Batch of 4 targets.
Target 1
Amino acid sequence: MADWEVVIGLEVHAELLTKSKVFCGCSTEFGADPNSQVCPICMGLPGTLPLLNKRAVELAVKAGLALQCRVNQFSVFARKQYFYPDLVKAYQISQDDLPLCSDGHVELLVDDTVRRIGINRVHLEEEAGKSLHAGEDIMNAAYSLLDYNRAGIGLIEIVTEPDIRSPEEARLFLEKLRLLLQYAEVSDCKMEEGSLRCDANISLRRKGSSAFGVKCEIKNLNSFRAVQRALEFEVERQKALLEAGEAVVPETRHWDESQGMTFSMRSKVEAADYRYFPDPNLYPLEVAPSWVEAIREELPELPDAKRDRFMEQYGLSLYAAEVLTSSRDLADYFEECMEDIQDPKLVSNWVMGEVQRWLKAHGLEAADSPVKPKDLAGLLRLVQENAVSNLVAKDVLEEMFATGKSAHTIVEEKGLRQISDDESLEAMIAEVLEANPGPVEDVKAGKSKAIGFLVGQVMKASKGKANPQRVNELIRQKLQV
Amino acid sequence: MTLQELEAVAVTARVGLTEEEKETFPEQISQIIAHIRTLDGVDTHDTAPTFYPIKQAGFLREDEVEPSLPKEQALANGPDVVDGYFRVPRIIEEE
C-alpha cells in the first residue's frame, strides 16, 4: 500500500426509537405480521398528508448534539425520487440542502492516536419498506416480497466527511457511533434487525495527492465485520485495477458475505438522478434554540466524558476506563457497585473480567444481569475480608449467575469460607512439607520459586479454601527463609 | 430540448413515448422552457429563497400509536399478494 492512500466516507442510517412512525401513527414495533402496521399515509395513498412526529425531531437533534453538530434552526423536507418496490410513493421524504444538523465530528482512538472524523450532516427521513428476495439473494431472486411495516419509520442519515483512512478505522468509527447513539438513546442500533445500516464510499488516490480518485459505493454491509472485510476487499480490487493502468468504474457494488467479494449492481452513471425538491406537503421545520437547549438537557454523560471521569475519579487506567464505558449498562453497573464497595481496582477487575465473562456466556446485557451490582458487592466484601480466596470467589460468582443466590448463602451452604486461622493451616502445611522433601530442600537452598509449588500443594489440600498469603508466610517462617 | 434529452427525461420518469410524441415534444417543451426562463430576468440577489408559500411553523404530532389499517384492507389493492406480502418481479436488471 506504499503508494496509495485509502479514502473512505460512510453513510449510516439509524432507526429512531419512537413508538410511532415519523409521519403517521402506525406502530414501529419490530417483528409484527407483514403489512399489519400500515395506513394510507405510509402506504402513500392519494389524498393523504404527512404529520411530523415531535419525538422524532427531538431524537434527531439529540443525535446531532451527541455528534457535536450544529443544529439548524431552519431545515426543509425534500422529496428524493426514485423507483424501487420498497418505496411506495416513488419518493422518500428526506432532507437535501437544508438538513437538521451539520458540521459535527466523532473522536476515535486508533493505535493510541486520537483521530477526528468529520460529520457532514445528520438529517431526518423516513424508512423504506422491507423486501424479501426469493432464492439466495437479491442478485438471483426470481421475485421479491414486500412488507411495508418498516415504511415510514423515522430514520436519521449520518454522512461522514471522507476522513476515514482504512477499513479498520471504518469499523472503529461505526463502533463509536453506535456507542454514542445508544448512550443518547436515539436508536437501539441493532445491525441484525436492520436498525443500524451502513453504506461505504471508497476510493484510492496516490499518496500526497489532494484530488479524490473514482469512488465506488458498497452496499449490503450487515455487520461491523462485513464493513471492514468488504472495504479490505475493495482496497485490493481497486489497487489492482489502478496498478494495471485501468480505470475504476464509478458504481454501486454489492457485498457477498459468503464469497467474501463485492459485485457490480448497476451503473451509477445512469442511476442517481433523484430530482430533489422541497416537499409541498410539509412546512419547513423550525427548531427554536430553547428547544435545542431542552433536548441538550436530556443528553446523558457521553462515553468520552464518562471515560475521562472514570480515570480522574477512580484512578482507572485508560484501558479499564474504555472497557467499562464501552456500554452505558456496564458503566452504570460498575458505578452502582462502587457505591457499596469503594475499591475501584477490585471492582473494575471483577466487572471487566468475571462479570463480563458470565454475562457473555449467558447472552445478557449488564442491565439484565441476575447478579445485581449490590450482589457483586456482597461477594467482593467477602474477598476484601479474606473470607474467601479470589479463586473460590470466581466459582461463587458462577454459582450466583446460575442460581441467583447471594454470595453469603453460597459460601455458607458449601462451606467455602477461607481458612485463615494458623492452627488449621499449620497442620496442612506440616503434611505438605513432609510429603515433598525435594522442594523443601530447594527452598532451603535459596530457590524461592519452590515456595510457590508448596503453597499450591497446600491450596490443593484445602480445596482452594486456604488463605494463600498466610500459607506463604507460614511456610517461610517454618523453613526460616 | 433535443430528442436525446427528451428520451433521458422519459426514462427517469418512467414515461413511455410514441413515435409521434418524440417528434412533437422536443419543440413544445423547448417553448415551455423558454417561457419559464423569463423568470431568469428577475433580480433575486437579496431575496431569501422561498421553500413554502406561507410563513408558518410546521405542525407536530405527539409520538402516540394510532390504529393501522386492517391487513386485508391494506393488501386489497395489491395485484399479486402472497402470504400477506405484495409480490413484485425481480428487482435487479439483467446485465
Target 2
Amino acid sequence: MRNTNRNLVNRQYVIIGIFALVGVIYLIKLFSLQVLDKEWIDSADNNVLRYVTQYPARGKVFDRNGKLLVYNEAVYDLMVVPGEAKNIDTMEFCRLLNISRETFEERFTKAKDYSRIKASVFLAQISKEDYAHIAEILYRFPGFYFQMRTLRHYPNAIAAHTLGDIGEVNKDEMEADSYYKMGDYIGKSGIERFYEKELRGKKGLKVVMVDVHNREKGSYLDGALDSLPVPGKDIYLGLDADLQAYGEQLMHGKIGSIVAIEPKTGQILAFVTSPSYDPNLLVGRIRGENYTKLMVDPRKPLLNRAVRGTYPPGSTFKMVNGMIALQSGSIVPATQFHCNGQASQPIKCTHFHGSSPDLANAIENSCNPYFYEAFKTTINNPKFGGIKNGFDYWVQMTHKLGLGHCFDTDIPYELPGNIPTVEFYDKKYFGRWNSLTIRSLGIGQGEITVTPLQLANIAVIVANEGYYYPPHLIRAFGDSTAIPEKMTTRLETGVEARHCKVIKAGMQSVFEGAHGTARGSKIPGISAGGKTGTAQNPHGDNHSIFIAFAPVEDPQIALSIIIENGGYGSTWAAPIASLMMEKYIKGYTERPAVEERMMNGVINYSIKKKK
Amino acid sequence: MNDRNSIIGKVDWPILLMYFALVIIGWLSIYSAGMSEGHHAIYDMSQFCGKQMMWIGIALAIGFVILILDAKLFDVFAYGVYAVVVFLLVVVLVYGKATNGATSWIDFGFFKFQPSEFAKLGTALAVASLLGKQDADLQQRKTRLMAYVFILAPAALVLLQHDAGSALVFASFIFLLYREGMPGAGAVMLLAVGAIVVFVLTILWSKTVMFIVLGSLFVLTLAYYLLNKKKGLWGMIAVYAFFFALVFFSEYAFYHVLDKHQRIRFEVLLGLNDDIQGAGYNLHQSKIAIGSGGFWGKGFLKGTQTKYDFVPEQHTDFIFCTIGEEGGFKGALVLILLYVGLLIRIIRVAERQRLTFSRVYGYAIAGIIFVHVAVNIGMTIGLVPVVGIPLPFLSYGGSSLLAFTIMLAIFVKQDANRLNILS
C-alpha cells in the first residue's frame, strides 16, 4: 500500500481534530470543576471532612408476653485517627483518661497498624459521667473524638445462652462482610448472632467539616450527603420470661437442662441450661475478664447443655420404639410380651408389675423386656425382608421423628446426636449382627444419643399426635415481617394419629396409673402425660430424665428435663417437670413443699473416674 | 547503526522530551500520593515511588536498546511478537491471578506481569506489518478480514478476563483503519458516537421518551429527504432503524447484559446513583480532590485529599487526582497540553514516514495512548464510567510503563531510520 491518495493524507486532520476536541472538552470540564465550582474549594481549604458513623439502636428483644429481655444503654467510645493525632501532650492525655503511658503507646500503635487515616476505637465504653468530663477538653487533642455506642443490658438476667452476647468484630468477620469496620459490634452467640442482620439495623453517615483544631464546623453541603441510621428490628421470642426464670431457679444447684416447647407452634417456651450465668457479666469492659473465669469453671457454665449435651435417652426412647412398632404394623396396642421381672433375658426389668403387659401397660411400668421384644419384632418384621432392611426402616423413622440430625432453625450450635446406621454395625461387627447384638437400642441405650431439645420434640410429637414444627426461638419481628418459612412449616413424622393416641394414653397413665413411675408428681387439676428415663452414665451416677406434656386434652406445653447424676427419672426430673407445667398453665403452683425441696436440692457434682 | 552519535542526531527530540516530562510528572505524583504514610525518600525502594524509579530505569534501558537495534527487526518479528502476546493472554486466562475482579495478572513472585498491556503493542505491530505488505489493500475483503481478526482476537481474550477497560482500548484501532482508507471506518466512528448518545439518553429518559424523540426526528428527516429528493434514502432509514433497535435493547442491555458493578458505575456517572459511601465513593472523592485544587493548586506535596487515602488507587488509576489537587487547573492544563501535543506530534511524524509499516504503527500507538488518556482522565472527572486502565507514562506499575515506553521507542526508531529507506 502506498501513501499516494491525497484524500487519505488529509484524514490526519480529522484525527488531530478529534484529539484536540476531546482535550478542549476535558479542559472545559476541569475549569468548571476546579475554578467555577466553589463547593469543592470551600470544603477543602484546610478543612478536612470527617465521616462520622451514626450507629443505629440495636433491636430490642422481648419475651412472648412483651416483657423486655434485652435493651440498649448509651456509652461513648473514644476514637482516634492516628494520622491526625499530632503534637499530643501524652502526659496530660494519659492523666485525663487515667491510663498509663504504656497503655497509650500500645493502643496507639495498634490503631496505627490498622490504619493511619481511618478511625479506630482507642478506649471503649466510657461512662456518661467520664464522657462529660473528658469531652470538655478533648479539643486540645487533635485526632481524637467521641462516638456514641449502645451496650446491651439484660434486666432479668436470665436465658444467657439463648440471648447470646455481642462483641467487637474480629478480622475474619470484617473480611466476610464489608459492613463492619474495626471496633464495630456484632452478635457473637445466641439470638444476637443468628438475627445479627435484623437486629443491627443500618448505619447512617454524617459528613461534618472540622478545622485544623479538630472542632466541628457544621455539616458538609448542608447535610446533602448524610444518611440517617435505620434502627434494628425488635424481636419477640417464644420464650416465657417467668417460666424461664422459674426453670432456672428450679435447676439451681443441679447440672442439666430443661427444654419446654409450645407443641402447636414449635416455639420454645423455656430453654434452661444449668449451671448458667448472668448475661450482664459479658457486657462491656468486664467481658474479657469474666469470660475467662467462666471458661475455666469445671462445671462448664458456658456449655449450652440443652443443645450441646448429648445423652443416651434411656426409657424415654420407649415412646419412639412404640410408635415405630405400631406404625410398621409389627405390633398392635393389645400385643403382649412376656416379662419375667429381674430374671428376664436378655434384658432384665427394673420394675415389678404383672407378667404380660400390653403396650400402654408397658409404658406405665417402663417394662424393658416389652420394648426389647417390640424393637426386635419391628426390625425382624418379614415384610422388610431381612433385618438390615428392617433396621434401615427404623433408622429412617427415627430421623422423621427429629432424631439424629439438627433442626437448623435459629437455635445456635445444635449437635445432631447419634442414631447408628446399618453401615455402622456392618463395620463394627464385620457384617454379622442381629437383633440380639443391638438389643440396647430397644431401651434407649447403646450407641443412641439425643439432645434435650430432640427429647422435648419427642414429647411434642406425642402431644400433637404425629406432627411437629421445627423447634425455634423466634415468635415474631417487631415490624411484623414474616419469620423464616422453615420455622412455620409443619412436618409430618409418618406416624398416624391413632398410633400416637395409644402412646399418649400410656404416657398419661405414667402420672395417673396405679403403678405409674411419676404418680408422685401428679399436678392438681391438670391431666398430664409423661415418661421417666434413667440414662446409664459410665462416668458417674445415672442421669435423671423426664419428658412430659400437658394438658392431655389440648397440650399447651411439652418438655424434656435432664438432671445429670440425678439418679432415677422420678426422683428429680419428674417433679421439676410437673412444677414447670403447672406454673406455665396456671401461672402459679400449689405444691410449696415439692417446690421448696426441688429448689433447694443440690446434687453434688462429681466425676467418677472409670476404674 | 551502532554509532550512538548518529542515533542521537536522528531521533525526534520533541517526542522524547514530552515523554521524559510525562514520566517525571508521574514519578513525582506517585511520590506525593504516597506521603500519607509518613515521610520517605523519593528513592525509598519500599515505597511505590522508589519502585517506580526502578521501573523508569529499566524502561529507559530497554528504550535505549531498541534505539540501537536494527529498525527492520520490528517488522520482521511483528507476527512473532503478536503470537507470543496472544499466547500469554490465553495463559493468563488459565493461570491468571484475580485482581479487582479482573484476572489479568501472571504472578512471577517478585513481579506481577500484565499481558494485556503488551497485547496492545503486539497488535499494533501485527496490524502495521499486515498493512505494510506490498499486496495489502483495505479495499479488498481479504485484507480487511485479516485486520479484523488481528484486532478482535486479543480484544476478545482481554474481555474474557473481565477487563472491560483494556478491551475498550482495542477500539482505538478504528483511527488507523480510517486513516488507511478502510471503507466505512468513518461511518462507524460517527455511528459509535451516535450510539453512545442514544444509549445514555435512553437510560436517562426512558425508552418511551426516546421513541417519541427519535420518531419525531425521523419524520422530519424523512420529509426533508422526500421534499428535496435527496439520494441515500435507504441508508438514512437503515441508520434510524439501527438507533430504534438500540433504544429498544438499551434497557435490556443495561439491566441484563452489563455486570452489576458496571451498571452501577454507569448509574453513578449519569447521576442516577449518589451513594457516596458505596458505588459513588471513588468518583466523589476524586472530584473533591481535583475540585479542591482550584486554579493554582495546593502545591507539590501539599494535597490533603490524595494523602489521606480518601481517593482509592491514588498512585495507579487515580494518579490524575494528585495532579489536579496539587497542580490545580494550571497543572491539569499543562498535562493535557502535553498529551495532546504528544499525540499530534506522533501523527505528524507518522505522516512523514516512507514505510506504510511505520505510518500505520504510528497511528496505532497514537490511538492507544489517546483512548487511555481520555478514559482515565474522563473517569476521574466524571465524564466516563469508572474503568480501571492506567494513565500512560504516569500511573504506577511496571507492565504499563514498560509497554508504553517500548511502544514509543519502536516508533522513534522507525522514524530515525526513515532516511535510510529508498522510496
Target 3
Amino acid sequence: MATTTDSVDLVGDEVVGNVARAALFAALMGAFAYVSFPNPLSPSPITLQVLGVFLAGIMLGPVWGAAAMVLYLAAGAVGAPVFAGGSSGIGPLVGFTAGYLWSYPIAAFVVGAAVHGGFALRDYRDASVVRLVGAMTLGTAVIYALGTVGFAYVQNVGLVEAFLVSAVAFVPFEAVKIAAAVGIVRSDAIAAS
Amino acid sequence: MLTYAPGDSLAHRLDPRSKLLFQLSFAWTAFAHTTPRGLATLTGVALGALLAAELSPRTALREFRFALPFLAAAPLLEALTLGPPWVVPGDAVPPALASYRVLLIFLVSAAYVRTTPVRDSRAAIQRLVPGKPGQFLGVGVALVFRFLPVLRADLARVREAMAARLGDERPLGERMRLVATAGLNRAFGRADRLALALRARCFAWNPTLPALRFSRLDAPAVALSVIIAAFSLV
C-alpha cells in the first residue's frame, strides 16, 4: 500500500450524493449498451445509450450529467465492457466510434443546460415539453454532427459516406427515444428527484 | 466479453502507466503512418503486444465483431460513385487502410484490458490526473466496475418480466420507456443507499491507493513506446 501522511480530507455531503449518482448513472449507461432492439434498417441493433445521454443531462443537470458521461468513457477506456457490443479499451475511443463517444459529455452538458436554463439545477419536471424536445433535438444534433465528423476523419471517407454508414440507420429512432424520454420525465414513475 | 484475467505474462507484470503510454503512442503512429509499409510494421508490433499479453489474435478479434460491418462498409461505399463507371476500386484503398489501422488499435487495447486489474487502472488514473478531478475519476471508475454487473442484471430481469407478460409486443417507444424507467429507479435507489454508506464510512478525497512501481521490465516498454511515437515524426 502507498502511504500518505496527510490528514483525512472528507468529501462534502452534497458532493457524496452527486458522486454516487454520477457513478451509478455511468454504470447505467454501460448497462443500456446491452439493452438492444433489432434495427430494421441495419445489422447493428438500436441501444438505449443515447437515451442515457439525454436523461443524464435532464436528471443530473449540465455539470454532473457531463461528469457522469466522462466517468462512463474513463471506465470503458480502462476495461469496463460498457461500449457498443460490450467492447472496452482505448480502441473505441480513438477508432471510428470516437466522435460519437466523445460527444456524449458535450451532448449531456448541452441537454442539461438547455433544460435547466443554465448551470443551476431546477426541477426538470417543470420544464415544458417544447423545451425538453428542443433540448434533446439539440443534443441529437451534437452527437450525430461530432460522430459523423469523427467517423469521416478516422475512416478516411467523405462526410456523406460517413453519415450513410454510421448515422442514417439510427437517426430515425432518436425521435422514438426523445418521445420515451419525455414520457419518463413527465410521469411520476421516477422516485428520486 | 474480454475482461481482465489473472496471469503472469510479460504484460501482466508491467506498470499500467507504461501500458497506457504504449497504447497512445501506438495509436498516434498508426494515424501518422497509414501506409501499407507503416501498417505492416505496426502489425508486427500489435502481434507482439498480443503475444506479451498471451492473448490470441482470434479471441481479441472476436471481441470487436460488432465493429466489423462498419469497418467493411466504409471502403465499399467510398468505392461507389454516382454515375459511370459506378465503381472506382482505387477510391476504396485509403478507407481500407484506415479500417485496418483501427483494427490494429483495437487489438492493442484488448491486450491492456486483458492484463490490467481494475485497482491498478484506478491507481494509475489517480496518479496521472492530479487533484480532485483525478480522485473523482478514480472513485467513479471503481464504482462503475462494481455496479455495471448489478445494473445489467436489474435490466435483464426487467426485460424478462416484460417478455413474460407479452410486453415485448408493445411499440418500440413504450418498451424503451418502461425499461429505462425501471433502470433509472434501480440506479437512483442504489445511488441513495451508496451515498448513505459512503457518508457513514467517512468517504474522503485522499484514500490509500495500491502502490504502483515501475519495475525493470517497464524500461524497455517505455523505450519502445517512445521509439514508436518518434516513428510518427519520420
Target 4
Amino acid sequence: MQTAIKHYPSKPKKVYLYATCLVDNFAPQSGLDAIALLEREGIEIIYPQGQTCCGQPAYNSGYAEQAQQVAIHQIAQFPQPWPIVVLSGSCGGMLRKHYPTLLPDSPEVAAFSERIYEFSEFLVHVLKIKLEDNGHPERVALHTSCAGRREMGIREPGVQLLHQLNNVMLVEQAYESECCGFGGSFSVKHADISSAMLEDKTRHLREADIDLYVSADWGCMLNLNGAFEHQQQTLRGIHLASYLLQRTQAEPEPIDNA
Amino acid sequence: MHNSPRNFKHNAHQALQDNTIRSNFRGAMDFLRNKRRAAFPDREDFEQLSAQGAAIKQRCLQKLPQLLEQLEQQCHSNGIQVHWAETAQQANQIVQQLITDRGGRSAVKGKSMVTEEIGLTDHLNQFGIDCIESDMGEYIVQLAKEIPSHIIMPAIHKNAEQIGHLFADKIPNVNYTTDVDRLINTGREQLRQHFYGADVGISGVNFAIAETGTLCLVENEGNGRMTTTVPNLHIAVTGIEKVVEFLADIPPLLKLLTRSATGQAITTYVNMITRPRQDDERDGPKEVHLVLLDNGRSQAFADDELRKTLQCIRCGACMNYCPVYTRIGGHAYGTVYPGPIGQIFTPHQLGLEQTKDLPTASSLCGACEEVCPVKIPIPKLLQRLRVESNKPSLRVKTENSDRTEPVVMHGEGSARRRLEALLWRVWAGICSRPALYRTTSWAVTRGRQLIPNWKNGWTQSRTLPKPASKPLHERLKNRIHS
C-alpha cells in the first residue's frame, strides 16, 4: 500500500476541526484538548456544527450508496479552502483515500480530500510543533490504528511527537503493527476472531509494562479500553491530543475522558 | 473441520479453542515473516520491485485473450499439446482421459494448488489411478488424509511431533522421531520409489510464457523436476491467469515470488519446460500436455476492479501477515485457497452464496496489501465483495432465454438482510441531516444510563462503550467564529 507523497502547506491561520462521531459522542474531551493545543499554537479552529460521521461504517459494511449519501453531506460542511484536521487516522483514511473512490471524477471531492490532515500528521508536518515536557517520568506505548498506519502513514509522526517529550519513555509492544481486532462490524460479525486478536493485543500491551498507552484513534481505544475494563485491568489508553496537552501544560491537570 | 466455507464461523470457533493450532500457526507465521523481512531489507526497493511486478501482471491481464492464443500457438509449435477447461470437472476429465488412453495406472504429482482446486487426486482415484503427492508437505497432508492449510507450506499446521506420529503410524518399519532430518529422509525414501514407477507426472505452473511457449515452475525439493522429467507423460495444469507475455517478465516476478514466499533469493530449482524429449535427448517426458483452466476466473476478469484478483502469483505472503489467518489457520476457511487471497478468489469459483462469510472475515487492516508483491488491493476487493454480497439482486434476462443471470457475480445479493439494509438507510438518513443527528446524539448521551448491557459479540470480551454526558458539538455550540 503506497501512501502518496503528501505536500504539506506552511502553517495556516485557520483550520477546520473534524472531530469524528466517536469523539463527538464518546470522548468530547479529546476534541476540547485538541482545540486547546492547536489554539496554543496560534491556530484558529472552526468547528462546523453540521458534521456527523465520515460514512466509514457503511462503506466497510458494503453499503456504498449510504456511505455516498453521508460523504456528500460531510463535504458540504467544509466549504472554505482551509485545512481539515481529523482526530482519527481511520476516519482520515476514509476522507482522504476512500472519498475519491466512492465519489469518482469529481474535482470538488478530490480537492476536499487534499485538505485532509490527521491530527499528529498536522502537528508534525504542518505546524512543525516543538513540545516541552512538564510531566513526570512515564513508560508509554503508542497504538497506531491500521488505517492510520497504512493509509495515512501516521505512525512516524506519532513517534516523533512522543520522542519530543523528554520524560516519556516510548516502549514498543510486541507485534506493535498487528490489528487490535476492532474493524467495525467485523468485531460483531466475527466476534470470536476479533476477540482472539483483542486478547493478544491487550496481553502484548500489558506485558510491555507501561503506565498507559496513547492512540490517535477512538475506534481502537473503545475496543482496547473496553477489553481492559472487561478484564478488570487498570491499564487504559488516552488520545494523543489529550496526552500531549497534559504533558506540556505548566501545571499538569488530570484528564477526564468521560 | 468441515471442508466448506459455509462452515467458516463454526470452523473458526473450533480452531480458536485449539491451542496447538494457535501456537503452530503463530510460530510458523513469525518464522515466515522474518524470512520475508530479511529478503526485503529496504522498503523502497520492495516498493519499486512490486510496482514493476504489478505493472507486468496488469499488462498481461489486459491482453489475456491474445496472450492465451499466443501461448497455445507457441506451445503447439514446441510440441506441447494444449487443452482448455472451463470447469474443474472438464479439467479432471481431460487429465484422466490422457492417462487412461495411455494405459496409465499411477501418477506422481508436484505441488500444485490448481490441482487441489479441481480435486484431481480424488477424481483420478475414482478411475483407478493412484496419485501420490511428491512435495514433502503435500505428502504429509495426503498421508494424514487432510488438505493443505497454506498454499506454500501445505503441512504448516503440523509440528514435528505430529508428523513423527503420523509417519510411525502410516509407514511400515518407521519409528517415532521428532528429528526433522530423519523425517525428511523417510519421506524421500518413500517418494523415490514412486518416481521410478509412475506412468505420469502432474504439475502446476508458476508462469506460462506466451512469447516462447515455456512453462516455468519453481520448487525447492527437486520433486518438481523429477515429476516433470522421469515419467514419459507430463501433464501441467494451470489457471489462465498465469500467462505472461515475455520471457523478460520472468526475472522480476521470480524475484518477488521467492522472496515473498520463503524469503529466498531464488528457489533451489527453477524449471523452464519448453518441449517434450527430442530424438537426440536422453531424458525428459515423451509427451507434454498443458491444461488451461478457467473455473470462475473469467468472471473476475470481466470486471476492471475484480480483475486485480487475478494478478496473484501465489506467494502466500498475505496469509503469513494476516491476523485472522494467524489465529484460525488455513483449514477453518473450508476453501482450497485460505487467507486473504482465498477470500477474494474463492467467491468467483463457488459463488457468493457459499462464501458469504469470507468477505466479512477481515478487519480490513491492510497488512495483506502492504506485503503483496503485485499490489493487489485486497482490502478494497473485500469491501467490493461486501457490496456485491449486499446489493439488491438486480438480474438481467439473457438474450435468448427467460433465465436470469447475475450482473457481476454468481450469488450476488445473497448476504443481503432486509433489517440490516433498513438500518443502514436509517443511519444514512441520520448522518446526512444535522438536526436529526443532534437529536439522536442528545438522546444517546442523555439516556446513557438507560442503555441496557446487551450480551452480544462485542461484550464477550469488552464492556459496552459509554456515551459522554454531553457531546462535543453541544460543548462547542457557543463558539464564536470570526
